[in-house]
Design a protein that fits this description.
Layout (H helix, E strand, L loop, with lengths): L4 E4 L6 H16 L4 E5 L5 H9 L6 E2 L24 H10 L4 E5 L5 E6 H9 L6 H4 L4 H7 L3 E4 L11 E3 L13 E4 L3 H9 L4 E4 L7 H9 L3 E4 L4 H7 L18 E2 L4 H9 L5 E5 L5 E6 L10 E5 L15 E7 L13 E4 L5 H11 L6 H15 L9 H14 L3 H13 L6 H7 L1 E6 L2 E10 L9 H13 L5 E8 L4 E8 L2 H7 L8 E5 L4 H17 L1
Parallel strand pairs: 1-2, 1-14, 2-3, 7-8, 8-9, 9-10, 11-12, 14-15, 15-16, 18-19
Antiparallel strand pairs: 4-5, 6-10, 12-13, 17-18, 19-20, 20-21
Helix pairs in contact: 1-11, 1-12, 2-14, 11-12, 12-13, 12-14, 15-16, 17-18
Length: about 550
């Protein structure tokens, strides 16, 4: 299996989650570790702004971490043209120790598969003597399999419309125009065959053609080749010039794509009889071959988690992967591993701060784009140091990274927050998915979403729709409590809307009273450090 590590943040990713994954992937790759940043959900507007600002492509979306064909070392593809002779195909199969060859058209699209069994079956089949013409065999194929030498080739050769024949008897009526005729060194036989206007005269045992017969061949438009093979060998080998397009399997092809899950591949292989199968890319071009032996080992993808360590916040089938590292700044939760891993957890305002320190510690300078992403993540998660989660370490790291990124922090932060807090054109469903996490507290499923704004009053027109959407979500899920935190970045105040259970208990923890399912809390900025601990405390006390 390919030794690649996938680096991902949590579901419903925010700027810190995405940027930290991208930055850590660059660090790992610069250290010689094959790594790829991925994402588990759609980007919010703030993160899209950041990636566009620094001209960085968004990570590939993955909904499963189960092993795919792309994760294993499948065989290289030996794609061939349908005009290739069976003899050449057999040679390729034997030299490369493979079982089949994908057959592609001029645009590299798969049109068939020629296998060892296809060729073997053709040898067993009793073909009639018109097989060369019927299979549209090319002159080049015949010349190649007979290892022949051209004595004369017309500008416009005749089609191989007749049968194969050996001139060994005197009955001239058996030779017809358009036939392919095998002749030895008998001059009279050579002359009589040419006069019949055959399509091809094959001279065996390196026989030659007199000059006067060359002229006769030109007059009758007859192609002539000479081969060192005997008459018996020519007659035996000539059918191997038939193109593979005539014998290949064209219908009910079993193919796989590089993103197909290995579990699905195993199941399909178990129901088919082929020994190898083509692998196609996203454009349906053949990129390799896969066989059963590629699937023998117990495959697991390697994954590094950033900005989270709770199983319910990660990819659905996390148990199918091997967690090799976690880099986070949240509470230690319910992730478990089968073996020791690198776990780095620091009480700072942003995972990007930790990733930045890892660059410094390894003496590796990030690219300008990555430095910019790290700056953006720190600014986003600390709300430009307005959040109580902010530390002096965050400020120190941002001060170093902004020089590499060549940005003015204040003006960039204003642009980023403006882009991220715009509610224009956004539906309630989109807003409630932009930055949301699920927490299991004392067995209670709590969903917490945070929306940032630069003007809290501007959100009043969408509050009813937001609350209706939250209530609808509770009705159709196992979530008991849905909490929405609308945070005014500059006034440093949040409005908290709660639907479901524990409304009064949560509001009480903030020394507030719930009114129309909401309350206002001055200084409430951090979901992680301020909101979640009080929600946990409120639920624990209520249940006890």
């Amino acid at each position: 299996m390919k030794n690649k590590t996938y680096i991902t943040g949590h579901k419903n990713p925010d700027t810190d989650s995405i940027c930290s994954a991208i930055a850590l992937a660059e660090l790992k790759n610069k250290m010689g570790e094959d790594s790829e940043a991925i994402r588990l959900g759609n980007l919010n507007r703030e993160t899209e702004f950041v990636l566009n600002y620094f001209k960085v492509n968004k990570p590939r979306l993955k909904t499963s971490i189960k092993p795919q064909i792309r994760d294993i070392d499948y065989d290289a593809a030996y794609c061939v043209n349908p005009n290739l002779s069976m003899a050449s195909a057999m040679d390729l199969i034997q030299k490369n120790n493979i079982n089949s060859l994908p057959v592609v058209d001029d645009d590299d699209n798969l049109i068939g598969i020629v296998s060892l069994s296809n060729i073997a079956s053709s040898y067993m089949e009793i073909w009639d003597d018109s097989i060369i013409g019927r299979s549209n065999t090319s002159f080049e194929n015949i010349l190649d399999v007979l290892r022949g030498k051209i004595l004369y080739l017309p500008e416009v050769p005749r089609k191989f419309s007749g049968k194969m024949a050996v001139k060994a008897i005197k009955n001239q009526d058996l030779i017809k125009e358009g036939d392919i005729v095998i002749v030895g060194d008998d001059v009279n036989d050579q002359e009589s065959v040419i006069k019949k206007k055959v399509s091809l005269l094959i001279l065996t045992i390196s026989s030659k053609l007199d000059d006067n017969l060359i002229e006769l061949a030109k007059e009758n438009n007859v192609a002539v080749i000479s081969t060192g093979l005997s008459t018996f060998m020519v007659a035996r080998i000539l059918p191997q010039a038939v193109p593979i397009g005539y014998v290949m399997t064209k219908d009910n092809l079993v193919v796989f794509h590089k993103d197909d899950l290995i579990d699905d591949v195993r199941e399909i292989m178990a129901q088919s009889r082929f020994r190898s199968y083509p692998v196609l890319d996203n454009k349906n071009k053949v990129i390799g071959n896969i066989s059963r032996y590629h699937l023998i080992s117990n495959l697991k993808k390697k994954i590094t988690l950033v900005d989270h360590n709770e199983k319910n916040q990660s990819i659905e089938d996390l148990d199918s992967a091997e967690i090799v590292q976690i880099v986070d700044h949240h509470r230690v939760a319910n992730i478990s591993t089968t073996s020791p891993i690198y776990f780095r957890n620091e009480p700072v305002g942003s995972t990007a701060t930790i990733i930045s320190k890892m660059f410094f510690e390894n003496g590796i300078k990030p690219s300008r784009q990555i430095a910019g992403l790290l700056c953006a993540a720190i600014i986003s998660d600390t709300l430009l140091f307005r959040s109580p989660t902010s530390t002096e370490t965050d400020k120190y790291v941002l001060n170093k990274m902004k020089k590499i990124a060549a940005i003015d922090v204040d003006s960039f932060a204003m642009e980023m927050f403006k882009a991220g807090t715009s509610l224009e054109g956004q539906k309630p469903e989109e807003l409630l998915k932009s930055d949301v996490k699920n927490f299991f507290i004392e067995g209670v499923n709590v969903r917490v979403c945070q929306i940032f704004t630069m003007d809290l009053e501007s959100t009043s027109t969408v509050e009813k729709d937001l609350k209706d959407t939250m209530e609808n979500f509770l009705e159709n899920s196992d979530t008991e409590t849905f909490v929405l935190m609308i945070t005014d970045i500059f006034k440093e105040v949040s409005e908290v809307i709660i639907v479901g259970n524990f409304k009064d208990a949560i509001a009480k923890k903030f020394e507030s009273e719930i009114y129309n399912d909401k309350f206002i809390s001055e200084g409430l900025l951090s979901r992680k450090k301020q909101l979640i601990p009080k929600i946990s405390s409120a639920i624990s006390e209520e249940l006890s």
